[in-house]
Amino acid sequence: MSYEELLTQTALADEQVIVMTAENRALVRNLPGILGKRFIDTGITEQTMIGAAAGLALRGRTPIVHALAAFLTMRAFEFVRTDLGIAGLPAKLSGFIPGLLSDANGPTHQAIEDVSIMRGIPNMTVFAPADEDDLVKMLPDVWQSPDPAYIRINTRKTTYNHATFEMGKAEVICTGIDVTILTYGLLFEQALIAVDMLKAEGLSVGLVNMRSLKPVDEEAILTVAASSQLLVTLEDHFVTGGLYTIVAEVLLKHQTTAKVLPMALNEKWFRPALLPDVLQHEGFTGKQIAETILGYQTAHQQPEILKPQFAE
Amino acid sequence: MQNTIEKELQEMALKVREHIVRMSTGGGCFTGASLSAVDLIVYLYSEFLNVNALNLYSPERDYLFLSKGHDVPALYGTLAELGLLQKDRLKNHLSLDDYIYWHPNTRIPGIEFHSGSLGHLPSIAVGVAMDIKISGGDNKVVCILGDGELNEGTCWEAMLVANAYKLDNLIFVVDRNQFQANARTEELIPLEPLADKFEAFGASVKRINGHDFNALSETFNAYPFEQGKVNVIIADTVRGKGLPSIQERADRWFCNFSAHEVEQLLLELHGNHYTQLTSETLVVR
């Protein structure tokens, strides 16, 4: 099922759902005709859209709100924090083309601090699906929750069939003694490749999909910290405030430690280009991830990376 | 408006002003800023809005959004006079024992949304008005804006959206007291011709004396001014209205008077001589 099909089905089944966009219809092109007055496009006004979503939520509605992740989380940040966060209103924020998915758009469109700033808001929950299958598996629970939510929308199609979603739970893909990769979002695709390559090199490798970043699965982090020699946090986000920080916080909170290798964007925006080239340039292909972990070059071939569907 | 009603409103407004003066000590409050909106708020809650103790949480009620959060002492005073907030609680102003602080919050019955950060409630009012339209209700939505607040771009964004969605159930009221926090609006960021600006954004605009209960009644009762257009009322007001010694002074936006000065100012409210003020004014933002 696609994101738009799920949204259509949900909105048709629940009269309280309002679909909103700040003139960013990539994900919701067919909804105006289907939902009529329950589809609201406020124009290029991310801040006002968030305020209006709060007003609609005050009247008992569940607004599902669409904008580019960079503008939704940053231009409208104080509105998200003040109108939704302080009030604890259940608006659901669909942030489109987050992280490396903004590929050739350039730094203005790069949401690579979004996890950090959204999880910093009390009451706000944060989710980062690995692909469209993961996305549509998590959204029913996220949309039904009474909390405001930020979803790092990822509609890329992969062949991976994800486990059922549970709020606050990570998806353990496999376990390993030598190394465990913790990741979320787009890089899950490449992490799967890296895991295969590392296994081919003779390592015992684990992989965890950290799909629910807030609430986070502390138990899953503590378990792999205790059972693996090395943890790798892999994310298309600044190294500050994202998964590496979350893991550090959880370990310190429980007064434990682990060897952790962060793979993230270190104090820099990424070089804009088409996605396969961005991944290569920033060292985030599966092959490069495996090589970084091994510390030497492998003979493996990197599978082709599909270009994204949208170029907004 | 009947003379008796007008007199009652004037008496209530005077009591609200007394509450504000009493809150202007021991930490102080936005005295000058809130005194300009007293008559407006008293009129809205007493006469225009369908809001009372019985329907405070009903979806059928009318909504007042106080976007200019510095007016909140006027709202506390009005809610207290109407019995929605116990008068005793006003003594807890700024105390940890209560929730009566410098900006509005929803722990106070009758306050629909928190504010303080400017330019937020226009869009929230738009969302509520949108839902009333979608749901087919006939509730009124009023949002009070400060004139200085109009510097915030989101006020104008919300106006564009209100126009696009033909929200004639929404009334924006500008408390036009001619002052920003620390300066005259026309000297810092000029707003005039203000009515023309709102009209250019698609609103139907009326401009009145915001201290004249008859004008307020006549204007609000003419709502909606035009079918399919968002309503804007520019209420010309006076900062510090009722206290000549602080009236129209940029440096008396926020006041923290001594107990003695509060006693003097209460006399001044009732027509006695001007008060000699020595307390330093705090200019904060």
Characterise the protein shown here.
The complex is a heterodimer of chains A (312) and B (285). Chain A is α/β, with parallel strands linked by helices and 312 residues long. Chain A folds into 2 domains: 3-152, Rossmann fold (3-Layer(aba) Sandwich), CATH 3.40.50; 171-298, Rossmann fold. Chain A has 12 helices and 12 strands. Chain A has helices at 3-13, 31-35, 46-58, 69-75, 77-85, 114-119, 132-144, 187-200, 218-227, 243-253, 275-282, 286-294; strands spanning 17-21, 39-41, 62-68, 92-96, 125-127, 149-152, 171-174, 179-183, 205-209, 212-214, 230-238, 260-265. A 7-stranded mixed sheet of chain A has the order 2-1-3-4-6-5-10, sandwiched between helices. In chain A, strands 7-9-8-11-12 form a 5-stranded mixed sheet, sandwiched between helices. In chain A, helix 3 (46-58) packs parallel to helix 5 and helix 8 crosses helix 12. Chain A is globular and about 60 Å long. Chain B is α/β, with parallel strands linked by helices. Chain B has one domain (3-284): Rossmann fold (3-Layer(aba) Sandwich). Chain B has 10 helices and 5 strands. The radius of gyration of chain B is 18 Å and the shape is globular. The mean pLDDT of chain B is 95. At the A-B interface, helix 3 and helix 5 of A face helix 5 and helix 6 of B. Chain B: This is Transketolase. Chain B: GO terms for molecular function: transketolase activity. Chain B: Belongs to the transketolase family. Chain B: Residues 30-265 form the Transketolase N-terminal domain. Chain B: It comes from Mucilaginibacter terrae.
